[in-house]
Amino acid sequence: MQAGSSNPMLNHGRFQEAEYSSPMRRGGVDSGKMTVSGAVDKTALTLVLAMTAAAFTWSQVYTGAMAGAAVMTMTQVSGIVGIVVALGTMFMPHWSPVTAPVYAIAKGLALGGMSAFMELMYPGIVVQALVATFGTLFALLAAFKTKIISVTEGFRSMVYMATGGFFLGMLAMMLLRLCGVPVPMASGPLALGVGLVSTALAAFNLLIDFDDIRSTAWQGAPKWMEWYSAFSLLVTLVWMYTSILRVLSLLAGGRDD
């Protein structure tokens, strides 16, 4: 099975490149090949970096150490840095041992600020989003490891098409808004539906990420793929968390109305 990812920030060819250039495929021996445990360790490290950075930004809001406008600026700048680093990693995956930690820190700073402001509006929402995100992560991981859910080629194709269609639809909505066409994306049933679909697609992408890590390690991919796999998982987890946070905020806003 060819490893790949429908993660919107990644490229299927990067996993193929790692497979076909690996020492095992060439018939050589390399002690520095990727392992599943290594990818898990790198993922854990990037999560710690992201959560530590998020805690810093969060504390600036709740302690008042920084003005709200300054925190907002830091949140926005960090978000932009995260996007730039993610794009760089996508096109230069060999940089991932450096860019994956940088992405984790930048995205953590951005999510910490965003989460803190959301928590001020809807108390308790961040804990709910975190529990839902990590609960889904571990539930899907258990289902994958016990083979309750299998990632088949048909499943991959479905997720590829659904994810591509979703982001094309989102792009179309953004273009319509730029052209002055009203699109009810801020609230209402359409916004809630988009949030739920986004959450479901993120969950499906997590399953593909799990399979990518296993199959790419089995192929004897180079060691840097551990970092790239960690980056892939983190991108998907960030996607899931923000989608869940969006859904919860819409539900909370509806109750307030």
TrEMBL record:
Pfam family, one: BaxI_1
Residue stretches spanning the membrane: 43-61, 124-146, 158-178, 190-208, 228-252
Keywords of the record: Membrane, Transmembrane, Transmembrane helix
Domain of life: Eukaryota
Keyword Membrane among UniProt keywords: yes
UniProt source species: Tetraselmis chuii
Name under which the protein is recorded: Bax inhibitor-1/YccA family protein
Lineage of the organism: Eukaryota, Viridiplantae, Chlorophyta, core chlorophytes, Chlorodendrophyceae
